[in-house]
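We modelled the chain as a single entity of 326 amino acids. Its sequence is:
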Amino acid sequence: MTPRSWICVSIAALVLTGCGGDSDDDAATTTPTQQDRGVVAQVASYELVIDRDQRFLVGLFSDDRGMVSHGSAELTFSFLGEEGNMLDEPTPGPDAMATFVPVPGSPESTNSESAAFTSPSEARGVYGAEAVRFDRAGFWEVAVDIEIDGTQHSATAAFDVREESHVPVPGDPAPRTQNLLPGDPDAPPDAVDSRAEDDGTVPDPELHEETVATAIDAGRPVMVVVSTPVYCVSRFCGPITDTVQELAQEYGEQMDFVHLEVFKDFEANTLNKAAVEWIWPDRQGEPAEPWVFLVDASGTVIERWDNVASERNLTEAVQAVVEGIA
């Protein structure tokens, strides 16, 4: 399947958890299981691997009552087996507590401690658990238990765990990307930013002032957001990109911020080389976005966020970096 067709298909399956309109990876394209009065769980993580503490994302919604937002949910994991060797009985795995992760720009609730069914105008987001570790590759299942409006609900969803990561993880050297900049004769405006005007004006100039390579070579920390605000379907890429721009306006003196547009030519289904270096470097699996990466002054990836990153997630990470170099 081509990159563009994969993005559209996966979003059609999960409008809830996509990028600022975007996609998700093999781990997020499983068919959701419906239980207990129509509550559905859908794994929203793009990439899950063995033997690593990592964030796990799951979205909850109902066909007739809307998204599930706010509060927290209990997660219980089970190993189902490998392709061609599924287990007769699932093997119990780890458990975790997941809290609601709102999409940037999602309205705040006055009752955020209790889970509730909401419309997109009231809240949008997923549930995230930190430091989840899987001990074997193959097919897994998550069972989600949550109290919604005073009633207990349960749902399950299957997902895939890989042997190794295909996207940079904390501890990896950051790609020294020579990304396209406004005015580049080899790049049409929308290859720099899909929201660019015909004259090359971009709505987020703070994110298109220099290359990732320049920032790393200068010994400055850099936050990299890989997204396509116009061509994402679920409309999460735009809010996340806007949040990174706001951080650039506030912290741009201390560190750098770069937006990498996914498509060089959307109609021709051609990806930008710079984006590929971050989200599809070995051409394994399928590319997914949005992603946000935080790189320290030595050029090492120190944090990454797939699919959904809240304003708090990103702001606290930037503040920690800035305080460390102050």
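As a brief sanity check on the tokenised model: The first helix runs from residue 3 to 13. The radius of gyration is 19 Å.
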